[in-house]
């Protein structure tokens, strides 16, 4: 994993690690972690309801000292709102309080006072030049980014911070939005960013139907086989 790692991240997620039970000698945990270690991979986590898909990825991410940016899909979700929901969850102040950022460098070797934030993100996506003034305008840059959200904004976050994009129930998206979102997914593949997609087994082929270019990048972990 590139970028930062969190020391004691996300105990506040509330996952009861003392009661978590591995199945098949940790087979699914290993498969999910291996998929996340493969740059640009889509870890497709499938299985019937109530088979522990969410508990599995939360446990694996906790072990990896990472946390999810979870987008829960529904039929009302638009393409733009899909990306906005992920970005709205990013809390740079919280991450900074739990992580040593003082020596960390950002993309291209640039440095923003050792601090990650909305100004940093705007600078990397070409929306502002890095400057002292930009550092004092976090709210303005957050508002600007959320007004026109895209996967391009998520890439620096997912590459440099201990966060993983998780998409739950993607089959609830309308066909038009599903196709639009996963056509844009190439941005993650091109930038070697791995993500988790959670859904039911019989909707596993929806990703390939939405964008055939993703076929070779999907690693399916099906809990139905447990």
Automatic annotation (TrEMBL):
Q: Which SUPFAM superfamilies match?
A: P-loop containing nucleoside triphosphate hydrolases (SSF52540)
Q: Which InterPro entries match?
A: P-loop_NTPase (IPR027417)
Please report the name of this protein according to its UniProt entry.
AAA ATPase domain-containing protein
Biological source species: Azotobacter beijerinckii
